[in-house]
Amino acid sequence: MRVRMTVTAVLATLAGSAGLHPLFTSGQWFWAVLGAVPCAAAGGLLMRRLRFSAAIGAAGGLAALLLYLTAVFAHAQALLWVVPTPGSLRHLVTLGSDGWRAVNQYAAPVPLVHGITLLVAAGVGLVAVLVDLLAVRLRRAALAGLPLLAMYSVPAAVREEGVSWLAFGAGALGFLMLLTSDAREQVGGWGRAVFAPRSGAEVPPPGADEPRPGGRVPAGALAASGRRIGAAAVAIAVLVPLALPGLHPKGVFGRDDAGGGSRTVTTPDPLVSLKRELTRPDDSVVLTYRTTDAQPDYLRLYALDRFDGDRWTYDPLRSTPRDKIGKAPLPAPPGMTLVPTRTVRTRVAVRPEVRRMTFLPVPYAPARVSVSGDWRVHPESLMVYSLRDSASGRAYTVDSVRPEPTAADLSVGGALPAEIVGRYTAYPKNVPAIVRNLADKVTAGASSSYQQAVRLQRWFTETGGFTYDLSAPPPQHGSDLLAFLVKNRRGYCEQFAASMALMARILGIPARVAMGYTPGTEENGRWVVRSRDAHAWPELYFPGAGWIRFEPTPSGIAGQGTAVPPDYTARTGPDEGDTSGSPTTVEEPSAGDRPSGAPSGTASGRRDLLDSPDGTREEDDRGVPAAWIGLGVLVLLLLAAPTVVRVLVRRRRWAAAEPPPEPRRGPVPPPRAPSPGAAHTAWREVRTDALDHGLPWLPNESPRATARRLTETLELPSPAREALGRIAMAEELARYSRSGVRVPRGALRADVRTVRAAFAAAVPRRARWRARMLPPSALETARDSARASARELARLAPSGRTPGRLAAFTATARQTAREAARRAQDRFSR
């Protein structure tokens, strides 16, 4: 049967499953695995006990696994909650299909829905069946490492980070245990082991005169050597990949920046996938977001600042630990010092189907980003990126500073910083002269850089005769850009953005190309960005305003459907950007000129409180629904109910024990002894307060004995000790004597308050707050009410007033009330 080997195989499989932990958002999957693996091993053990063949033994393990899955996931459709039926099998198949769809929908770590838990339990259980078959039944423990290794291949293929060294070490340790146990059993099959003395002396052969020293190594030394070799092998397998940068993305011991240095950020060409996104036939959703901006701006991924004569790229980023995003604000946007700005909050949810998005799409200029994971910011361009994480399936919040310049602000001019001019106005010398001449011709007569930029934009969108065409090939060489400007004038956003940025640099205006997404379309209060909204546009630098977006790509039906020209570039008269005369006013495009699905400038209002970006709530946020207010009030009432009941009961008791005195004329009467009702009420209140604070109360003690015990146990101060003594004495006199103690009216009530405060000061804080918020005496009140109801029902039942069905109901209710009262009494006593 090899029971010990079976147990070792179970432990090795469970240890190997530790590598699956990063794939899920919680660790609840392990409990399903913890039941599936022993069940599968028990099925194989039973088949070996019955001396079946290896194939039938594996079938027995699968059958036991099926019984377990049926009992856990389909017991409602099974026979006796465990025996599979056609209905339970269909339920398992449906649940597995749902889990498979969820796996393909989400990015790791995936939420642990019911179907995914089923798939994990079934998968690891299948690995347990194979390990049991190979290592235990066929005695091929080394081959059993293959199914164990399969569990590591899943996170290694899905996650860029691979498997942590802790998970690998746990799995390797389990595999070594499996090998060791198998070797021990194989050696033990030859008979009882004979161990040599630890001194190293060998047993003398027959006929020998003296033993030969040092002839054989002790068995204990061999075992110790084996353990050392195994530990060294595991250590090398774990440490070597960590130490070699080419085998581990985080460097030595998972550090992002060894020694606090910098790392080069390398990403694929951002423009390579632009046309593929624009021409995807499914037009899938990339992300959704909600924003406080009535007219959202573009979501930027990349800022391409270098033109090499053929294409726009960006210089490799040098990432340092100082670039990590934390709670502090991001670096200030360059140059945005004079124009008016406003803060915009955007909550973005990226779809899980999006892959390898290592740059976050954010509105420019981001001032604060709240996102989980290791994300960093490039101080100059404010691109937000990660060295190891992906935006797939993530939700994050961005606070952006959006500039609101006017034509007058951008026409003022001013000196440009030297570092901006030197870097963002450079272009290769091999740019054809015809392109330089064309830039001068289009902007002839413009009196400022802003007017030059506006005329360039108008030339591309209106007067230049350009056509938006997704069938045009992406530019690969400088000649392709020249053909776009001079010959065919057909292309999509990449050609328009690249051409305007180049011509702006020729005119001495700092420029770069940005890539990301247009605002998308608004659907029920949230904005949906699809693959067709992928876009490229130029950003130009102006003194006091910083980097400002322009839109040379045609928009609307004949262009990029959701592209929106910025307001500060709208036509203001015969000459765009002319600021002479009266102050410039920018007109908003009419509804007919606005492209279909573009953001409307007359939105219903800015949302100050945003919903979750996943769109789970679609109603307007201008007010809190009455249902939520009612639910909140109901919750507060439920929480306050025990305290309110306790206060009301206390007031009712004292009102009955000490009715208000009747008004009298003449001298004030002398104090009289408290009535028996007041003494009993005071003692009952002391008992209730003691039980509420978790203090023991013995019903067989006299009042004075109880007072003495509580005083000594709690070490009550002198005022509380005296007050408790007076209450106990009044209770005993009310029980056994006709005369009473002469105390002023209300004195016992004041003594009860003193004792209650002393109880609260003597117990821990948790007990004190429980006595205030959830007093157990409220349960005693419910018990008394149940008993009163039962007595009333018992009084009415035999009188003939409740005939037939009502009498039966009364008897049942009476019995139920008695049982509830008994359980309440037992719980309250404890």
UniProtKB/TrEMBL annotation:
SUPFAM superfamilies found in the cross-reference section: Cysteine proteinases (SSF54001)
Biased composition (Basic and acidic residues): 605-622
Keyword Transmembrane: yes
E.C. designation(s): 2.3.2.13
Chain segments carrying region Disordered: 553-622, 656-680
Keywords for this protein: Acyltransferase, Membrane, Transferase, Transmembrane, Transmembrane helix
Example of a GO MF term: protein-glutamine gamma-glutamyltransferase activity
Gene3D superfamilies listed in its UniProt record: 3.10.620.30
Domain Transglutaminase-like per the UniProt entry, residue ranges: 485-554
Membrane spanning stretches: 29-47, 59-83, 112-134, 141-158, 164-180, 229-247, 626-649
Keyword Membrane carried by entry: yes
PANTHER family xrefs: PROTEIN-GLUTAMINE GAMMA-GLUTAMYLTRANSFERASE
Name of the protein in question: Protein-glutamine gamma-glutamyltransferase
